[in-house]
TrEMBL record:
InterPro entries for this protein: AtLOH3-like (IPR055298), DUF4371 (IPR025398), HATC_C_dom (IPR008906), RNaseH-like_sf (IPR012337), Znf_TTF (IPR006580)
Protein name from the UniProt record: TTF-type domain-containing protein
Organism: Quercus rubra (Northern red oak)
One of the record's GO molecular function terms: protein dimerization activity
Origin superkingdom: Eukaryota
SUPFAM superfamilies the UniProt entry points to: Ribonuclease H-like
Domain TTF-type: residue ranges: 51-145
Pfam families: Dimer_Tnp_hAT (PF05699), DUF4371 (PF14291)
Parts of the chain that traverse the membrane: none
The organism's taxonomic lineage, starting at the top: Eukaryota, Viridiplantae, Streptophyta, Embryophyta, Tracheophyta
Length: 630
């Protein structure tokens, strides 16, 4: 393709055929320049029947299509030359304005006859030219809109991942505090010229700063974050961790977390969402859980564990939440949060053993008095101490380590005038003795009557908190522990463990598992990569990295099922901490959907940061019809 530039006409030559897109670009550029309409002091004279005539520049008026060629002293049709060469040729006299050029200056009326009606070849050519220019503007608008939306998404994602508020008290243009969102958008524009230009020239009805637009973009980001989590789950087995709490507006909220093992063999716990529940009955919670799982195309048939904090409406054996779910899926084993069980055990012992209450009450008072004196001295001397200033022993791994700690404690007590009991002296019972009792030393009393008794009570309480099924499950799970070169391995118990999952291990699978376990343990003992492992989680990752999970698929399935079982509900508890940070006293009017979207991105910010803006923008565009398109 070539464009020949002449003195008078922009393209007095011709446009030859070439690549389609290149021709369109050239024509669009030609249209942008417009028709050549030079204004000369003296146009060349032409003679008609001994009368001289010349072209006049006022003939341009009202004829935007007209262009004049100085070289040929003729006029042409700007649009017909570009778009209607073949069609105009069929129109009487039309070809003159395309190839030869019109120069009959004594017949100026023929200029207007070229235009003809709205359906003429000339009118169609004009329309094509206008459409092509509009297309250029449309392309520019699309580019500007993409830049604008990309900047808005960046700002919104930043605020979400930091858990910050969006709105301001006064969002007017003259306000000095328009809120985090508008201020951040302005800040970004101030430090990027191209973004600032797009933001300033954006139509007033497409600024993308309206609160409803903000909520739509937030929902798009949250939806893509959840989608990435579900994709990582890859239609595999999962457990649910559920808890409930009230937000700042005293609305009951139920939080749900997924626990699963990903393709790399890593244990993952991800926040799926938070739902307002009008009632905290087991049936209401079950319906809310099913709706949330259904929303993300997750089925209860893939559920392999339930983790709650032990409230009666959840762990009840008759109508509790765990029982309702177990009726639909017998493999969805309930595991009471270990942290709560341990805490309940300590509380029960503390309440039921009078010697424990008295012992810690006396010791606490003595320590409190000593600390009060010391703190008072520090405050008077202007000294501030932190917990890091004290000598803290946290890794007592050897029996002898306790002796050094005991020496430090004794020194501390002596320094602060705290009474130290002589363990070899005779134990004196408080109060007046009514009868003679066998004398015993302080050491015997605290070791046998206090310490050993407490240990027995704790063991009994722990046994009470574990059902027989859970106990059998945990004992079998321990056989997968790789520590000390798989010393805990027991093939019979692992086969028994597989029978807890009849839907995953059919009868033929049990027979195959027997053979795989035999080869598996031999392989583990002879493979240096597995000898230093300490945890089942490390074993799963190592099996995947060495591709042994393909060699022993049933063994790996057993490992995955074990790791999928919930251990503690700490992740759910943290989601409520995030809720209190996000929906605080200043943001107590947040709607449920808005809060849920904000929490998903805030809690799973590592997932949200790895999603590209294009994906989020496409999600936003597909949510509803917008004034502009990408």
């Amino acid at each position: 393709m070539s464009i020949e530039w002449g003195r008078g006409r922009w393209a007095a030559g011709h446009i030859t055929h070439g690549a389609g897109s290149t021709i369109i670009k050239a024509i669009r550029h030609y249209l942008t320049k417009g028709p050549c309409q030079p204004v000369l002091n003296d146009f060349p004279l032409s003679y008609f029947s001994e009368k001289s005539r010349r072209f006049r520049s006022n003939w341009y008026i009202g004829r935007k299509w007209l262009e004049y060629s100085i070289d040929k002293d003729a006029v042409f049709c700007f649009y017909c030359y570009l778009f209607g060469r073949q069609d105009v040729a069929k129109q009487g006299g039309g070809e003159t304005f395309v190839t030869k050029g019109f120069k009959l200056w004594n017949q100026v009326a023929n200029l207007d006859s070229h235009v003809r009606g709205v359906n003429s070849a000339h009118s169609q050519a004009v329309k094509k030219g206008e459409d092509l220019l509009k297309e250029k503007q449309h392309i520019q608008n699309k580019h500007d809109y993409r830049v604008q939306l990309n900047a808005i998404v960046d700002c919104i994602r930043f605020l979400l991942c930091r858990g910050l508020a969006f709105r301001g008290y006064d969002e007017s243009q003259c306000s000095s505090d328009k809120g985090n969102f508008l201020e951040l958008v302005q800040f970004l524009g101030d430090h990027n010229e191209s973004i600032n230009e797009v933001l300033q020239t954006a139509p007033k009805n497409c600024k993308l700063t309206h609160p409803e637009i903000q909520k739509d973009i937030v929902n798009a980001i949250a939806s893509e974050t959840s989608k990435a989590i579900i994709k990582d789950l890859d239609n595999g087995f999962f457990s649910i961790l559920v808890d409930e709490s009230r937000d700042i507006s005293v609305k009951e909220q139920m939080s749900l977390v997924l626990r699963y093992v990903n393709k790399k063999g890593t244990i993952i716990e991800r926040f799926l969402g938070i739902v307002h529940v009008a009632s905290t009955t087991a049936l209401s919670l079950k319906c809310a859980i099913e709706c949330l799982l259904c929303e993300h195309n997750l089925s209860l048939s893939n559920l392999r564990g339930q983790g709650y904090d032990g409230i009666s409406n959840m762990q009840g054996d008759i109508n509790g939440l765990k029982t309702l779910i177990l009726k639909e899926n017998k493999s969805a084993f309930y595991v009471h949060c270990f942290a709560h069980q341990l805490q309940l055990t300590f509380v029960a012992v503390a309440k039921n053993h009078i010697n424990i209450v008295e012992f810690f009450y006396v010791r606490r008072n003595a320590l409190r008095d000593a600390q009060f004196v010391k703190i008072k001295e520090d405050l008077e001397n202007g000294i501030r101490r932190s917990g890091q200033d004290l000598n803290q022993e946290t890794n007592l791994k050897r029996p002898g380590d306790i002796q050094s700690l005991l020496t430090e404690v004794s020194s501390f007590c002596t320094t602060h005038d705290i009474f130290i009991l002589n363990m070899d002296e005779t134990f004196v019972v408080s109060g007046r003795s009514r009868r003679k009792t066998q004398q015993k030393t302080n050491l015997h009393h605290y070791r046998v009557e206090l310490f050993y008794t407490v240990i027995d009570m704790q063991l009994q309480e722990l046994n009470n908190h574990f059902s027989k099924a859970n106990t059998d499950l945990l004992l079998c799970m321990a056989c997968l522990n790789p520590s000390n070169s798989f010393v805990a391995f027991n093939k019979e118990k692992l086969i028994h463990l597989a029978k807890f999952y009849p839907s995953d291990f059919l009868r033929i699978d049990i027979l195959a598992l027997d053979s795989q376990l035999q080869n598996y343990i031999f392989d583990m003992h002879s493979n240096d990569f597995f000898l230093e492992l300490q945890e089942v989680s490390e074993l799963a990752e190592k099996l995947v990295s060495t591709r042994k999970h393909e060699t022993y698929p049933l063994v790996y399935l057993l490992v995955k099922l074990v790791l999928t079982l919930p251990v503690a509900t700490a992740t759910v508890e943290r989601s409520f901490s995030a809720m209190k940070y996000t929906k605080n006293e200043l943001r107590n009017r947040m709607g449920d959907r808005w809060m849920n979207d904000c929490l998903i991105v805030y809690i799973e910010k590592d997932v949200a940061y790895n999603i590209d803006n294009e994906t989020m923008m496409q999600r936003f565009q597909n949510m509803k019809t917008h004034r502009r398109q990408l």
